[in-house]
Every structure is written in C-alpha cells, then in structure tokens.
Amino acid sequence: MAPYDRLRTDGSTPSLENGTWWYAAVAGEAADSFSARVRKRVRRACLGSVLLMAVVYAGLVLTATGQRWENAVLTGRFTDKTLAAAHEANRSLQHITVYSLAVALLVLTAIGMLRRRYALTVTALGAVAASLFLAEVLRRFLLARPDLVEAPAHLSPNSFPSGHTAIAVSVMFGLTLVVPYRARGLAVGLCALWALAVGAYTVAAGWHRPSDVIGADLLVLAVVCGLVAVLARRGKVAPARTRHLPLFTLFVVAPLALVAVGGLGSGTVLLIDSMYVLEPADPSVPRLAHRAGQALVAGAGAAVTLVLLALLRRVDLGATPVPYRLTGTVATEPTGPFPTEADHEIS
Q: I need a labelling partner for 64 at 20 to 30 A (CA). Which of 41, 90, 239, 275 fits?
C-alpha cells in the first residue's frame, strides 16, 4: 500500500482532500494556497453581484412603484436643464462613448502587448466583449420590462442593463488586469472619472434609467470576478511584492469612498422623498427623482470600483504558476503491488 493510502488507526483510508500532492497534480493548487483564497473571494463577489443585480431589476423594473420613479427620473431631467442642454448632453454622450471607447481599447491592448502579458490582454478584451454581449442579450431577449404603469410610449421600452455603462466600466476594470500592480491605483483613478461620467451622461441624456446603469455596474463586476477566478484557478495570481503608496489612498480610495457614501446616502434619501413622502402630483417630484437617480448612479459606480480594488488588494495578476512543493517524508523505495524485475510482464 502506498504511503498516501495507508490505513488510519480506525482502519479507514484518508479521503480526497485539498492540499495533498496528488490533489495538487489534478487541481493545480492547495486548499490553503494564495490562489485558492483569491479564487474563493472573487467567486463569492461574483455571486453577490448577480444577486444584487437581480434585486435591482426586481425592485425598479418589475414593480409599479419602481417604474413610476424611474419615469420621473427621465422626465425630471428637463426640470434641471433646458431642452437645448438635454440635446447637447446627447451629443456629448455620443462623443464620449464612440471616440473615447476606441482610444481606451487601443490603450488597453497596447499596455498588455508592451508588457507581453498576452493572456491578460485577451482576458481584459474578453471582459469588455463578454460584458457588452451579456448586456445586449439580457436587454433584448431575457429581461423584459412589463407595462405596469401608464406612461408615454418613449418611456416603455426595456433598457436594462445599460450597454454604454457596461463598455465603460469593463474598460476600466480591464485596465486593472493589464497594468502593473504599482500603477493600478493611478489607472483606476483616472479611468473611473471617465466611466462614472459615461454612467451619469446616460441618465442625463435620457438614454438609460438609474437601474440600467447600476445593473450594468454589477454585471461587469460579476464578469470580471469570474475571469479573475479562472486566472486564480490556473495559478496566474501571486502576492504583490510592493505595496501601494499612501498617495493611492489619498487620491484614489478616499475620493471614491466619498462619492460612494455620499452618492448612495443622499440618493437613498431623495429616492424615499420622491417615492413615499411627497404626493405623486407634486411638481418637485421629477426634480428630486432626477437628482436621486444621478446620486445613486455615481455612488453605485464608485462602490463597485472600490469592491474590485479591495478584491485585488495585494494581488499581482499574470504571475507565473508556482509548482506545488512536497512536504514531509518522501519514500525513496518503490512501493505498491508491482514487482521491480525488468523481465516481469503484466498479464
């Protein structure tokens, strides 16, 4: 009997457990390894993102109260801006989402190629493609918007989740995969301004509702967490050798945390006022709803960005897999039922 199959004191054999050398040969990692811990937490984050996305969809799309509020958000944009300003926001949105997206994808590809991280480059581009594909499939075929309230025809079509936001956020998250760990904070800080602006413009221009933008944020987070889990499963993650500078916390984490807390907090207060405190016929409801939608969109985008940074804290992506090392005593003599004679033939 081989050493790893020796009977226990009670007569039983050891069960198939993580951490044994033969499990490492099959699974490629030990249960307590760094890659296993990273994979476990990103898988949980992926599941949590999907559940939160379902909650947002059920609360704001599948209820009459949620539909009335989001319709008020779309109509409330004209209370804060003139019609000409709304059309100008529309043109600005087209400029941002077309030209800046092309530049962002080129930069994303160039960084990965210059660093010779081809697998990470494909993963980052795959995150953008998968996020846009899933957003379009969900919006067109799987997720419907039932007509629960009387609203004009231009407010009835389904737009959950937002494809514009999915592209922008996936590009930002793609940068976290291809840039060096030391520059990750700077890249996220700069790209977060663009991604949050795209989400805000989609609501300001009337292209999408707040639930569309928040759902797209959660969708992209789930996709990226799933791809990071695959990288961890293949052993392509390692502990970062360097730590972020204090400036990272001061200029990236602190502003994002301020936007997340302030946006979600103030947006929730305004949402409650516009949905439950004031009468639906009150002329101030559309204005409060529009402001609540803008605040919630900004807060949700910043919060999702902080979650990804926390998940990848001190995690270097694209590392070379570390071979599993045996510990303990290794048998030097061959063991097992087969004889060692050279002329032995198994029949």
A: 90
Q: Give residue 28's pLDDT.
A: 44
Contact 69, 149 (CB under 8 A): no
**What DSSP character marks residue 315?**
E
Q: What is the secondary structure of 39-71 as a DSSP string?
A: HHHHHHHHHHHHHHHHHHHHHHTSSHHHHHHHH
With 0-12 / 13-18 / 19 or more C-beta atoms within 10 angstroms meaning exposed / middle / buried, residue 38 is buried
Q: What is the pLDDT of residue 319?
A: 66
Omega cis (within 30) before 161: yes
Read off the pLDDT of residues 125-168 as tens digits, 9 standing for 90 and up: 999 999 999 999 999 888 989 988 887 877 888 889 998 899 88
The three-class DSSP label of residue 19 is coil
Residue 316 backbone dihedrals phi, psi, to 5 degrees:
-95, 120
Which residues of the chain have a pLDDT value below 50?
1-7, 13-14, 16-28, 323-332, 334-335, 343-347
Specify the DSSP class assigned to residue 100.
I
Predicted TM-score (pTM) of the model is 0.80
Q: Rounded distance, CA 5 to CA 59, Å? A: 54
Q: Tell me, what DSSP letter sits at residue 98?
A: I
> pLDDT value at position 23?
41
- Angle between helix axes 64-80 and 83-95 (nearest 10 degrees) is 100
The whole-angstrom separation of Cα 100 and Cα 150 is 38
Q: Which residues of 261-278 are buried (b: 16+ CB within 10 A; e: fewer)?
A: eebbebbeebbebbbeee
What single letter denotes the amino acid at residue 180? Answer: P
3-state SS string for 187-256: HHHHHHHHHHHHHHHHHHCCCCCHHHHHHHHHHHHHHHHHHHHHHHHCCCEEECCCCCCHHHHHHHHHHH
Q: What kind and span of H or E run contains 316?
A: strand 315-317
Per-residue pLDDT, 50 = 96
Predicted pLDDT at 11: 54
